[in-house]
Design brief:
With 303 residues, the chain is α+β, with helices and mostly antiparallel strands. It folds into two domains: 163 residues, 2-Layer Sandwich (Beta-Lactamase); 106 residues. It has ten helices and six strands. A six-stranded mixed beta sheet has the order 2-1-5-4-3-6, with helices on both faces. Helix 2 packs antiparallel against helix 4 and helix 7 packs antiparallel against helix 8. Keywords: Endoplasmic reticulum, ER-Golgi transport, Membrane, Protein transport, Transmembrane, Transmembrane helix, Transport.
Length: 303
Amino acid sequence: MSMIFFTSVVRVRDGLPLSASTDFYHAPAFLESRRRLKALAMQLARHPGRGSAESQDFRIHFSSAGDVACMAICSRQCPAAMAFCFLETLWWEFTSSFDTTCIRLASRPYAFFEFDSTIQKVKRHFNHAGTSQMQSSLEKVQEELDFQPPVVLSLEEVDTASRLANGHVPVLRQPAPPFRMEPVTALGVLSLVLNIMCAALNLIRGVHLAEHSLQVAQEEIASILAFLIPFVACIFQCYLYLFYSPGRTAKVLLLLLFICLGNAYLHGLRNLWQILFHVGVAFLSSHQILTRQLQEKQSDCGV
């Protein structure tokens, strides 16, 4: 028996539908739920994470992270853990198929209509697979729901807010749920330790040079900056390794450039081996940042 009737992938900031499943339900109660799902999509920026809204005959569930949210109209008999497991699977499928730039630049509804076939495949899998086949995934999602229950919204409040905003809801961005990164490796820990050491050396030398410059010449100001800018770059490298950030590649290359240029300018205040040490640590940290990816989805929580 089908428990997931309709699915929509929307852009969080403005509720623009990016893709949706084809439905063949024309009951008045279902059409009313479709209308309310559209109104709720316009307000997702206010409700990051997971949430649910309940009508007389159906439940609307949504799960958002970053720029994309997945929404579904389910029967009242559909377990919440199954609905959110389905939405998480769909989110992973969509974000792995289309890059962030395309999503942000989309200007017309259902710009990714070709994703409909994937939606149908995932929906069919969850509608017809036995609960025992997804037991481990459902138990994991249920533990997450017990620890952090989804937001429960009133459809009447959604309708009221939609009428007041006249279809234009101010975007109140809140931090999205953190992306799960792959575990830290031993080499990654070593790069962090060495990076902190380089940052400390740069800070100490820069502050020491500034304190002992009674009449700071232009060359000394440049040398102080050549110490302090790599210090800041090292700290940001540590941050990029520990936490996910969009556009990591460009940021890593920019930080690496700052560190290399700063150390090249310091030739004379540092010997060749010191410069090679700082640049080598910067390259090691850059490699570790770029090779630490988002954690893959659980194998049982999908198709």
